[in-house]
Amino acid sequence: MTKERVLEVDGLRMRYGATDVLHDVTLRAHRGEVVALLGPNGAGKTTTIEILEGFRLRSAGRVEVLGVDPAHGDEKWRARLGVVLQSWRDHAKWRVRELLAHLGEYYAPYSTAAIQRPWDADELIEAVGLTEHAGQKIRTLSGGQRRRLDVAIGIVGRPEVLFLDEPTVGFDPAARHEFHELVQRLAADHGTTILLTTHDLDEAGKLADRILILAAGRIVAAGTAADLTRQIAGEDEVRWTVDGTRFVRSTTESTAFVRGLFSQYGDSLGGLEVRRASLEDTYLTLVRQNEVVR
Ligand SMILES: Nc1ncnc2c1ncn2[C@@H]1O[C@H](COP(=O)(O)OP(=O)(O)OP(=O)(O)O)[C@@H](O)[C@H]1O
């Protein structure tokens, strides 16, 4: 797969009135990469996505999406993007298949030899798990089904870049699992570059090739879930018992520590457990550190 750069952001700043909400955001994503943007409420995730998709004008910095500055993106450029923001509330009387076929028509002029647009409505409905509801009116869908429709609307034009803002809110566990498979397929089979925001750390760890942690308008860490955990959370927790007495110790060198326990206590060592630092520990550590700086 080519490592074509699809998202390039350097020194992005955003100011609302007198308040700076993005100070200096730099990020990259290449073709077929899934990047998760994590951060507490108000960190600036939605603002970042809205700037990348051309919905909001930035205050400063360089931004390119598919080689184009979103502030000057034309319809042809826009047709190559997919956006899933909030729940689709218009067209409540439309039926699922009817709406997707209608919205898909917009993308037909932008079909290319490599990417056939739009996505066939029935195939798309199947891909998002709405086949049983294809003939239903939108206002009669459940919250989770409506969210699946939001996802279908976001990808009906077979986007090369997909922005997903908290895509799985309201999904039941099975729907979440199916959605994760869909995202992985879009990235792996179609080379779609995906930038998603989420508050679900398991989701980020599972889906993303790279995680960016945004705190108070700055990217404070970036890497795979494993990289971040190793770099930042650091300490594992080791628990054990000797002659019925329980012990617990935090250490960055759990393997060497456990080896030491075996050589010291031999057969009297019991109840050994090693709890690895998790992405959640990392995330909380980073967000706390950033609050202190603020
Ligand atoms: N149109 C606006 N005018 C003024 N301030 C805004 C506007 N939109 C967002 N903000 C502020 O910018 C900051 C970042 O908001 P943003 O919605 O980007 O955060 P977020 O990381 O997506 O948060 P959440 O996790 O709660 O969705 C917040 O402090 C918010 O109050």
From TrEMBL:
* Subcellular location(s) of the protein: Cell membrane
- Read off the PROSITE patterns from this record: ABC_TRANSPORTER_1, ABC_TRANSPORTER_2
All copies of the ABC transporter domain together span 7-241
Membrane topology per record? Peripheral membrane protein
Which InterPro entries does the UniProt record give?
A: AAA+_ATPase, ABC_transporter-like_ATP-bd, ABC_transporter-like_CS, ABC_transporter_ATP-binding, P-loop_NTPase
| Gene Ontology MF term list | ATP binding
Task: Enumerate the UniProt keywords alphabetically.
Answer: Antibiotic resistance, ATP-binding, Nucleotide-binding, Transport
Family matches, as CDD domains: ABC_DR_subfamily_A
Signal peptide start-end? none
Lineage top rank: taxon: Bacteria
Q: One matching Pfam family, short form?
A: ABC_tran
Principal cellular location given in the protein's record: membrane
Hydrolase: present as a keyword of the record? no
What PANTHER family does the annotation carry? ABC TRANSPORTER ATP-BINDING PROTEIN
What is the name listed in the Swiss-Prot or TrEMBL entry for this protein? ABC transporter ATP-binding protein
